[in-house]
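Extended Data, panel c. Modelled sequence:
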Amino acid sequence: MSESDFPKVPQTADELIARWAARDAEYAKARRGMDHEFEQAIRQGRMREAGLLPVPERARAYGRAQVWVAPVNPEFGSMKDWLE
């Protein structure tokens, strides 16, 4: 891997949250739900990323990372699917 394979650290919480939204869009494409351990790993990774932000921006992103919930595929995961 080269250094260019890693995106630069965002300087604002809004930029970081936009990056997380793009990742969530990819996660939502999965048909199956995530394992609890994988969800926890994503939360911890996001908290680490939030910790790299400048101090004034850090708290909002860190709090948002703590309460993150895995997105659900819009075509799968409803109560109807579960009952079938």
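The chain has one domain: 8-83. This feature is highlighted in the accompanying rendering.
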